[in-house]
Specification:
Elements (H helix, E strand, L loop, with lengths): L2 H23 L37 E2 L2 E2 L4 H4 L4 H6 L2 H16 L5
Antiparallel strand pairs: 1-2
Helix pairs in contact: 1-4
């Protein structure tokens, strides 16, 4: 396995781990409420670096009708202020560990 293959596989695995953490802890309350922020579409994208810069639409430019078109660790580990308030410390520590590994290998800044 070369370095590029390793980084691609690591990225994929870290995204999967972040998904598992989010599904288990459910800080966004998708199972019960849909999103603690409310009915606003793609609220979590509006403050990410993937938000549209033109101001016409603040939703992420990589968000399609069927969800995310560009899975990445930065978005997988993102919690808005509302969700953070509902996340338990174990969830926050686990997501921080995923981000730390991603930073170690230069996958995120």
């Amino acid at each position: 396995m070369n370095e590029i293959e390793f980084l691609l596989r690591l990225h994929q695995q870290l995204c999967g781990i972040a998904d598992a953490i989010m599904y288990y802890h459910d800080p966004c309350q998708f199972d019960t409420a849909g999103c603690v922020r409310g009915a606003y579409p793609a609220w979590c994208c509006h403050r990410s670096r993937f938000a549209r810069a033109d101001g016409a639409d603040i939703r992420c430019q990589f968000l399609g009708d069927r969800g995310c078109l560009n899975e990445n660790i930065e978005c997988k580990c993102f919690l808005c202020d509302m969700a953070t308030a509902r996340a338990d410390p174990e969830c926050l520590r686990a997501l921080a560990a995923v981000q730390a590994i991603a930073k170690m290998y230069g996958l995120i800044k």
